[in-house]
């Protein structure tokens, strides 16, 4: 009888222990659930300043560590002409962002009418050293009317208490592309982003960081070898026949003797494209020989002409002349942007997210 009572007590003890274990496991699971990082919605503004147009966007950023899909849901965007008087463009962008924040919040498209972060990416040269008095300025640009223009301060005055970040219109998309390519397993530590439009700029990510240094890369103003006996003077007011002076949209139009607006209808067989491709192929070869990026992404209005890619790769291969034993074909190294014409805008938005995170961490 005593043995039976002992067995019953042991059975109840085990049952209680099992129940306690189940309850404990449930509590632990709930605690773990709350410990998991929660996806956070941020209202982020992005401004891309180009030589022909400025673009602005307001987006909801969903902080998703899984990296699946785009983290940006663009709620509103607009385009503004790059006026000769900078104030005309800057004020138009500012006024649109303020009114759009209010209207989108009122309609429920945004959770609130304030920005969590603002990213600004513009044509250059720009001053990126925060210790300098002209930090956040467009400096010695060839763009008429825009030399020594205060940009970052203009928008931080307009949106006080909003963390803001400033970089070139090529460094910002270079960083955005690097993050995307790294998640896809295409690159490990580096990439180059080249925009070919009204001007030509190069953004570099090396060792997972954008290159600033003394100023920032201005590789579009290198003078490289010419095609054959080419005597075209070039259109760059600083360097004449540099990369930008030979292969930008104004250069191609000048060589083809047509308006820049007519370039989309210019035949693929026009010699102007081959001259531009030779210059851009030489630029890609120089990038591979100097910075050695794992991928070179070409974007901008001119690069919407997809037939240029094969010509650029061919000319790059001719310049390299078999010297580099690359692990991948140039078809996989010199590629178009998967972000298309939104590369600069997404780059600016990524600066806005970085500004928010940096401010939150400090």
Task: Report a brief summary of the structure.
40% of the residues lie in helices and 18% in strands. It is built from ten helices and twelve strands.
Strand-helix topology:
Layout (H helix, E strand, L loop, with lengths): L1 H34 L5 E9 L3 E10 L9 E10 L4 H22 L9 E6 L14 E2 L10 E2 L1 H7 L5 E5 L2 H13 L7 E6 L3 E7 L2 E2 L32 H5 L1 H8 L14 H20 L5 E4 L8 H13 L9 H4 E3 L6 H19 L1
Parallel strand pairs: 1-4, 4-7, 8-11, 11-12
Antiparallel strand pairs: 1-2, 2-3, 5-6, 8-9, 9-10
Helix pairs in contact: 4-10, 6-7, 7-8
Structure description:
The protein is an alpha/beta fold and 362 residues long. Helix content is 40%, strand content 18%. It is built from 10 helices and 12 strands. The chain has helices at 2-35, 86-107, 152-158, 171-183, 243-247, 249-256, 271-290, 308-320, 330-333, 343-361; strands at residues 41-49, 53-62, 72-81, 117-122, 137-138, 149-150, 164-168, 191-196, 200-206, 209-210, 296-299, 334-336. A 5-stranded mixed sheet has the order 3-2-1-4-7. α4 crosses α10 (343-361), α6 runs antiparallel to α7 (271-290) and α7 (271-290) packs across α8. The protein is globular, with a radius of gyration of 27 Å. Residues 26-38 have low confidence and may be disordered.
Structural class: alpha/beta
| General shape | globular
Number of helices: 10
Beta-strand portion reads 15-25%
Q: Based on DSSP secondary structure assignment, what is the total number of beta strands? A: 12
Strand numbers in spatial order across the main sheet: 3-2-1-4-7
Average pLDDT, all residues: 89
Radius of gyration: 27 Å
Percent range for helical residues? 40-55%
Order of helices and strands: HEEEHEEEHEHEEEHHHEHHEH
Largest sheet: 5 strands, mixed
> Between the first and last Cα atoms, what is the distance in angstroms?
71 Å
Low-confidence stretches: 26-38
